Structure formats: structure tokens, C-alpha cells
Prior knowledge:
This protein is of the alpha/beta class. The protein has helices at residues 88-95, 122-138, 159-171, 200-203, 205-208, 234-243, 249-253, 289-297, 324-341; strands at residues 5-12, 28-38, 55-65, 98-103, 153-158, 179-183, 198-199, 215-217, 247-248, 267-273, 306-311. Residues 1-20 form the signal peptide.
Amino acid sequence: MLLYALAALLLPLSSIRVEASCACSPVVIPVHVNVLVPKDPTDPFAGLKSNASELRRVEDTYDLLVHGFSYTSQYWSPPVEEFRNYSYTAFSCAQGPYSSLAVDVLGAGLSSRPANSSDVQFPTAYALLSQLARLLKSTNFILPGAQTFKTIIGFGHSAGSGLLTFGSIVDGKNSPFDALVLTSFLATLNISTLPTLTSARDVDPLRWASLDPGYLSRGDHSIFYPTDPTSFSSRMVLLDDLVGDVGSVSLVSQASTAALMSGYTGAVAKIVGSADQIICVGNGGCEDVTALTAAEGALWPAVKSFEFIVSQGSGHDMNLDFFADRTFDTFVRLVKKFSDFET
């Protein structure tokens, strides 16, 4: 069970070019969902193994701002700091012709935050992402006049990787995601080092005093960085602590959902940092890549390809330490590889 929830979409473009520089602008998209969720928001299988009497329906239209746990879409494009650029969206755009859409998941950032935190569960959050991906393939509402997107690659960070994994079970071969890049998330390791999460209104009463106690956050983000203090900027950790956001207790409990993803037929890559204090520190630095590839890959028997990568020196937030450029190079390589599958 990992505690950061972020999902982003990376969209290869063939018809859209930005002259001289890459442009970025926010857009709020209303998305309707109608799903069954567990009555018990801590259901570890997010309703996959529940019967009808254990479920309730959530039907609503939520606004998504087009992030792991306590993060928003800013994880993919944080401020430039100390003459370094930690923005993957800017990095990928400069490699062209790729466009990325960083999404605030339900309950976080500028996306809708239901009054009842138990409405923010894996089935609800993934249904929004799935609907959004389908809209991108069928309409040009985000970029009027442009062609629709042919290929969509889902990027997940930590529990956001768990969210996309859950979605691969739900949608199977009908998934709108042609490939998945899942970072800072493993299904086969025994994770013993987990951050402590607290009701958000106790973490920061000035910001979140009115929230349902089922919304959680964390005041100290240092565990998401490597143990070596020379491999990251202490100011990035301070920034994390200042701008950290919230997630629901359901997204924590359901992030451990793991099963055989036998229906998903796209391509999958998993990336972890050898200095990830949650996943790899205490598990041999995830050094046995062959064994981990076999164990993790066995859960995806029908995919076009499966690749497992250990990024040496990187922490849990591999986008935010001094090895970020190397991580970004890996991301772009995977995007090019997966895009070629669809041509």
C-alpha cells in the first residue's frame, strides 16, 4: 500500500506544434460518473470482491482540473527551483511532438472535493480518468480544431499507479489506455515502512478545518526522498510541506488492491527508485531486477510488453530529486516505444 496518488495522461500528438516554446494552460472539464462503490470505504479490494448488498451507487458530475497522496498535478510540473527544472510536462514537450495532461484526481487540488470523503474511492476516481481518456479519443473539446488523440499513455505515481492498475482490472481489453507507466508502486514486495497520515484538518486547520475527517494528509514529506541528503534539495522538501494536499482514507486503503490483470492487453512499464524509502530501502534496494521483473510481470499475462526498471539513487518522488532528468529520459523513451506500437 503506497500513499501517493497521482495519475497523468501523456498524449502523443502528430498535428499540434507549439512554435518557439511549449504552451501550458489549465482547463476544468466536467465528467459524469455512475459507479458502485463499497459501503465500507476501507474495503481493500475497492469493491472487486463485494456483493450487491455491500455496495452503494455514486452518480454525479465532477470537475477535473486538466499527482501521490497529498500531491496535486503539480508533482508533474513543480516550480523551477535552484536553477533546475523538475517539470516533466515541460521536458516531454521539449522532446516533441508530445503533449501531456496532468490531472488533479477527485478530491485533490482544484478538482471537485465531495463533502463526503467516502465518495472518493478507487471506482469513482478511476471512472473519471477512464471517461476523460475516452473523451480525448473521441472529441477535440480541449484543443478545438485539432485532431483527436490516437494514443493515450497513462502515467501513475505511487497510489496513482495503484489506481491505474485497478482500472486495468475494471476495463480489461477495453481500457482507453494504450499503455501504462507505473512508478513507485509494486504489488509483490512486503512494504513495512509507511508514512503516518493524519486527518487533514488536524495537519493544517487553517486550510482544512472544515473537511470531513476522512480526508487525510501528511505534514512531513521527507520519507519520499532518498536517505542521502546530497541527492535532493532540502528546499524541495520544504515546498512539499507547504503545498501538500489531501486524499481520502479510501485511496489509502484501496491502493493495495492487487490481482491478476489478465484482461489488459496494452503495454506496461514499472519504475522504482533504488533509494525509495517506502519500497526499496530494506528490500535490498530492489537490486534483483530479474526476479522483480518475473514477479511483477506475471501479474500482466496478456500485455504487449512488460518492462521493469530500477532507477539508481532515486527516491519515492523520483521526479523531484537530482536524478529527475534521468527519470524523464526514461519516461520519454517509453513514450516513444509505446507510440511506435500504435503506428
